Amino acid sequence: MSALNPSQARRLTLTDGLSLSLRHAPRLKRCAAFLRVHAGSHDVPAAWPGLAHFLEHLLFLGTECYPAADNLMAYVQRHGGQVNARTSERHTDFFFELPVAAFEGGLARLCDMLAQPRMNPAEQLREREVLHAEFIAWAREPSARRQFELLQPLNPAHPLRAFHAGNRYSLPIQRPAFQQALHDFYRTFYHAGNISLSLVGPVPEAELLALAERYTEPFATGPVRAQTRPPTLLPNGETVYQQLDGQHLNLLFAFEQLPEASSTALDFLCRWINADKPGGLIAYLREQQLCTGLKAEVLYQFEGQALLHIAFSAAGNMTQNATIVRDAFYDWLAYFSTQQHHPALRSEFQWLRQRQLEVSSALELARADCEQRVPGLSDQAVAALAGLLQQMLPPAQPATGHAWQLPPPNPFLSAPEKPANAGLIRGQTSAHRGLRTFAQDRLRSRRDHSAMSFSADVPATGHEAAVYLRWRLPASPADSLLLALENRLRPLQQDAREAGVDLSCSASGHDWQLKMQGFHTPMPAILEHALRALETPDAPPGTSPAAPLMPIRQLLKHLPQFSQPATDATLSDASQGWAGARWDG
Predict the structure, then answer these.
(1) Structural domains present in the chain
(2) Which residues are catalytically annotated?
């Protein structure tokens, strides 16, 4: 693995039954807590939809010890942190991130609000109106309607088909039966044995443990409450269904009785379905002008069940090409099933998971630890993947005749090899000067190795960096040239993002800027690939035009042109622009 090998989380169970995860991460500047209650909207009695989400809201209203003006929300905002909560189908999460000095106060408030909620009827009435407003906004969202329609073919008895949002009419505050159900739900699930807590930060592990033991002590004790197993996802033994909706084609696969390692196997499968690389599925569909987008994601997973969604999108109506697109997907899936054990795929997946840990924030690490994500694809996950693919492939597999290929590896995930002549030019002590020299060399087509390196003046303890390169062009670049430049960088941006680097470009008047920010190790290689791509900014085949900007963004985009001298000249040729450009970096 790379030089930055993050420490492993320590897992233990406290005497009251609470599951605890601790991670000492010296590179971080903040601490985070992620608390999961193993109960969600599907664990609520059917008579009171929305009760779990309503309880989540009530817990933020303050306690006797920490009233509203000093509760967790107010405290975190006052200290410049972030805080939120989320009610899912089978769990409810509460999480925050704070500077180290303020972390103990945040943990004290988080634990207190879960252990000592007020449940005041007057506050419940006010908070119900907040929930009702959220419901109205949600119901008006086109995406919410599409999601509702997407799940209609599921088994009517499965809770995924039910209404769980909660509103003014499903939460009758004044009814004694509702109050009884609310308090019963809290007592049943909100106790130490049903809670997982993850703490992450630069402070010593022993200190994190002491904080956890101190502030979770007021939690009620009780046995782990078994959650009700739902009925099958699809009726009559079915395992897949298709929905066609204008510009969208949806394939949904329902799985039952999956092994534990299937979660990682599904992540692995989605990663390669979504891979936007030459020889892959979306690259082929885009080249044939059949699709503009593809997304594979797991919509639901619990107790051996999973619902996998494969969403295809197009610029126009999908009806005419739906069969061709579906056949291409199954043909690619058949090819992938013969390559699933390929060591390059497993190796890259492990590198990707490792890099995610290396660049994650404290809050992201805390969530990953709470969910117990594993860094790679185990032998058990490989076996689970084989079972998934066997179920997904139809008995009679269509063939497109296309020669599928494994995606080329992301060159920025593994540790870079240092060229023999790497290092700063004599007299340079700034990484930026080395970058500027590298940029000039690269675009003048010189063949010597890059002179880019990180100065010895850069602290060795950090792992983040930012690089800015600006070209002052002789004239404003034409919109077609800007689009071509952006299209050339788009595949590279995905690889860079996976490697922990945000790569972006922007234009302002006669200036064009390239920006990199994030994990410093892969930056030299990313910059080299970016500048090579910019030499010949021809749009890749099948590239779709960028989505139109909002009017205010269009105005801001063109505003710098009015500060330039009046001229009709625009640049439409990249080589002509680079030849006359001036450099900053």
Answers:
(1) 10-215 (3.30.830.10), 235-392 (3.30.830.10), 431-584 (no CATH)
(2) 56
One-character DSSP codes across 222-237: -PPPPPPPP--SSGGG
- Secondary structure string (H, E, C) spanning 34-66: EEEECCCHHHCCCCCCCHHHHHHHHHHHCCCCC
Our CA angle for 470, 471, 476, nearest 5°, is: 125
Q: Which is it for strands 570-571 and 476-477: parallel, antiparallel or unpaired?
A: parallel
Q: How far apart are CA 45 and CA 146, in angstroms?
A: 26
| Per-residue pLDDT reduced to its tens digit, 104-118 | 999 999 999 999 999
Rg (CA), the chain: 27
Tokens of 490: 């788009």
What gap in Å lies between CA 378 and CA 460, rounded to an integer? 34
- 85: left (phi > 0), else alpha (psi -120 to 50), else beta? beta
b/e 344-365 (16+ beta carbons within 10 angstroms → b): ebbebbbbbbbbbbbbbebbbb
Rounded CA separation 354/30 (Å): 20
* Secondary structure (H, E, C), 477-541: ECHHHHHHHHHHHHHHHHHHHHCCEEEEEEEECCEEEEEEEEECCCHHHHHHHHHHHHHCCCCCC
What is the pTM assigned to this prediction?
0.85
What's the rounded mean pLDDT across residues 500-504? Answer: 94
Tokens standing for residue 79: 């200290």
